[in-house]
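haha ok so turns out i had the wrong file open the whole time. this is the CORRECT one, sorry everyone. sequence first:
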Amino acid sequence: MLRRRQNMDCPVLAACLVSLCLYLNTLDADFAYDDSRAIQKNQDLLPETPLLNIFYDDFWGTPLTHSGSHKSYRPLCVLSFRFNYAFGKLNPWGYHLGNVLLHAVVTAVFTCLAQKVLKRTFATYVAGLFFAAHPIHTEAVAGIVGRADIGACLFFLLTFLSYMKYVEYRTSDQLASHRWIYVVSVYVFAVASLLTKEQAIAVLAVCATYDVFVFHRVKLQEILQLQIFTMSHFRGLCEGLVLLATCGISLVATRIYFMGSKPPEFAPSDNPASDSNSLMTRLLTYHFLPALNIWLLLCPSVLSFDWSMESVPLVESLSDYRNIYTIIMYISIALFAQVIIKQLNQSCRNPILGLKSQMNGNGVQHNTHDGKLNPPNQKSRLIRRESGSSSDSDELDAPSSFTENHCNVLIISLAIIIFPFIPASNLFFYVGFVIAERILYIPSMGFCLLIGEGAEVLYNMCSSPSRRRLVLLAVAVILMLFSAKTVCRNFAWHTEEKLYASGIKVNPAKAWGNLANVWNEQGRTSDAEEAYRNALKHRGNMADVHYNLGILLQEQKRVHEALESYQRAIHYRPKLSMAHLNLGILTAQFGQNENAAKIYRHCADLDTSGLKDPRLHEATKISCLYNLGRLYTEEEEYQVALSVYEEALTRRPSHYAPQSLYNMMGEVYSKMGDLVTAERWYRKALKSKPDHVPAHLTIAKLLQKKKLYEEAEKWFKKASDIDSMDASIDHHYAQFLTETGRHIEAEGRYRSALSKTTPDFELLFNAANAFRQNSKDLDAEDLYRKAVSLKPELPSAHMNLGAILHINGKLAEAERSYLSALKLKPDDSMTLANLQKLRNLMSSLERKGSP
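then structure:
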């Protein structure tokens, strides 16, 4: 008995250890791909967010009822992320550790199921090790968002194992009353599976399949004639089916209620076939995709983080060679079905239906050492063992009829492969992806069971030890190849850069676009620009890529190219609010305030329903109102600006921090001369966010206006203490010091500000004035030149440059600068006076230099 227990534990331990070892190299990986939106930007992970929100929001933190929601309802998975956040904030190590440990647990539980289904040690080893090492699992384990698939798989297994125990107890007089414990377990684990990922609800169909075709071995004819509802010996089966149906209907109804009774909306690029007008194209493509998924299970040589955007070309005609794979798949399924139906029709009924053997009064035969149902013909099984005809690896109970057990394995394996895959098949409703490797995590269990059973069959078919060793060698080689592929694939998931680079061959448009974002963040702007353009070569209508390229160009001061990129982004996605916002900002920088105001207003009134990440779009619309208010403030239309800010405060979503709006309200009142009201709004901004630097600066400037210089300087210093690297603080502080006559200190602050940032025109111009006042004329000249290069359209810039050149004795250049200023503003008296003085000086010097 002890030896048997040890033999049962060995496959479980081996598979569990292999799964741990293969994924240890993911622990030092960073966040990648979907992890950013699901974890780093998900408000539901934060402790200040009410815990109940996870039951009303989708996986990405968007309310389920919102039109832009993905409708992915996985509150238990989000709860586990929240647990990670509570202990490690946004350190990815803890999140990866959770995934690796959870995968090891699932591997162990699956191997236990394999023992029950396969009933032989060698087959169990093969199934467990293949599941531990299969490369298709890499995305689920190495990608943190894959925890939903791993967790759902765990509850899937626990539901199925609980139902198997329920069926076993249901047939026993002594234990029948205890079956309700397992009914409760089935319900609890089924609910947990649905709350972890929707796909796992398919376990109820797997349970029903097991009860009907494996345990009761119901014939197809009996189903068609509805005998399962009329014959007395199917009473237990009817009970099980009613329980499963009740559970399933209740869960599906609850799920539909929570998602607002509306299906999710997906972009055509996510699932190109769904956007095709050709019925033939849709049918051929959607029937080919399951075959492609099966191929990924058989030969996972090519894997990718994303399979959208026609990375799998559409099957548009009957002449496409890929239809052969579809035909092979459906022929194989038909052959499997034929074998199963034939075996069910030929096999004897399960022991509970009256086999002559050692049975209790209800016709139930029990295994005396473990409480399990025994198969018939126990004596012949023992004789075969004594004769040595069974496999040396056959330490677990073997069935009397291998053909019957093969049929059982085939039924269970196909049920685990097919039912969980149906929601992702697009055959009944469209989904937002073409292929997702995470989706295959649960179906891969059925595949591994088939591999284990097939390896056992091959092993037993071999009569000579050398051939058996060849089978063992083949299994070992495949396992080593799978393990090596898994380890290599894990390294690809270490960083976003490696991950996206690995996907260029499969999905070049998406891979280049994402890789460009990574390089842009790393400061590799030339590489990033080239990558953006590579992405657009493969797919020119990607609005996000045009928008991100616009940001890169704008940061490089290539404003005209940036404008074109933003306009293209809006052309391909008119609702892209961020592109409208940046387009408005650039338009305002060109001095086209009227056009900028129209852009801001249009953006603020955009209908962003149906868009992903609605929080971002709603916040962007309020930012448009913020910038529109600033525009009116600069034009001294103060009442209009106030009305815009009031509108922004009224429309502000709860997640948009109000302190900037409060501060700008104070700015408007300050410019209107209402300092009391201005201070009230400044204080309100500080109450909303005590470390809000702009509010500190505006209060300081308000006190400066009131001539309360000591108090004003305290606020400038407080702002500097909050963020010592903020150049704007030094800039405003320097202006204050200049006004109070502390010119040397002001110069120091200006130099500090210039060292901390790429200076804008205002900083350069004001610093140049301060340097000039301190007789740092060469430094002032350099800054005036830079200021003119930034805003050559401003006459004051040319005039001041002319003045410093005049002082520095560069008279010819000074004259050109004065003339440039006068060309922009011909009647400027100060420039005219300075030019006259310059020309008098030049004439005087000429006279002195003449003989």
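Residues 2-258 form one domain.
again sry for the mixup
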